[in-house]
Amino acid sequence: MSNSHLPQAEIGVFGGSGFYSLQDGCQSVAIDTPYGAPSDRLSLVEIAGKRVAFLPRHGADHHLAPSQIPYRANIWAMQALGVKTIIGPCAAGSLQLEVKPGSFVICDQYVDRTWGRADTFFEGPNVVHLAGAEPYCPTLRSLAVSCAKELGIEVHERGTMVVIQGPRFSTKAESDWFKSMGWTVVNMTGYPEAYLAREKGICYVNISLITDYDAGIAGVAEAVSSAEVFQVFKANNHKVRDLIYKMIAHIEPGAPCYCREPH
Fold it and tell me: For position 262, what pLDDT does the model report?
């Protein structure tokens, strides 16, 4: 299918580790981009009367490491479908004792500790410098918090995500440093996905599902394993899906927003 005849969608959803499908019976579409192929084919469904595009960022069989995810292709593909709003759930480790596994964090800041990732569409000759002070859509963040509370989900209304390169987890020394900085969660895919969405004028919200205490906490938990991450995310997939569905019902994709204004 050529990109000139692509179906359209209003809302996009990225799937993280352990979250590879939004709904059965989807229309599947392959998209060519100037940045190569996206992580996988995109699935199109209708939810609450709105067209929604879903893409598992690691691929449906989880074959892409965090640093190998084609972030630019993924965002470009969403925009090609007409997406104006993206919900980006992910698995994350907690850096603070009060942020417990199974709870959600609606992040309001991130710290980038990755390297070598293509992280801009503005490579020249036109170079654009966007403000990064508020990296997530404030309207979507407020909606995510209110919907989570209505569903009875334990939710932290704000937090800072430190994004590490992966695929390895943090050392204890690294994790202690992150904790001492007051950062809330650690993840491997939060950058540059959110920033690239901003460059395209797409509203973006992160929903961090806490799967573990990063590198363990003395007397509380041991260091995390990948098997445990997938187990916790799988056990909480229904909460992630319920929250996404509830948000979609309330999202107004065409509404004016800070994210779509030049900064």
Answer: 61
Please state the pTM of the whole predicted model: 0.92
- Nearest-CA neighbor of 181 among 107, 95, 98, 105? 95
| pLDDT tens digits, 96-127 | 999 999 999 999 999 999 999 999 999 988 88
The pair of three-digit structure tokens given for residue 76, joined into one six-digit string: 């470009």
pLDDT for 20 equals 56
DSSP 135-172: -S-HHHHHHHHHHHHHTT--EES--EEEEE--SSPPPH
Please provide the DSSP assignment of 187-254 as one string. ESSHHHHHHHHHHTT-EEEEEEEEEEETT-BTTTBPPP-HHHHHHHHHHHHHHHHHHHHHHHHH--TT
Domain regions of the chain by residue span: 3-260
Parallel, antiparallel or unpaired: strands 85-94 and 203-213: parallel
Predicted confidence (pLDDT) at residue 18 exceeds the cutoff of 80? no
Q: Which positions are annotated as active-site residues?
A: 212, 214
Residue 50: which of 104, 13, 91 has the closest Cα? Answer: 13
Domain 3-260, CATH class in plain words: alpha beta
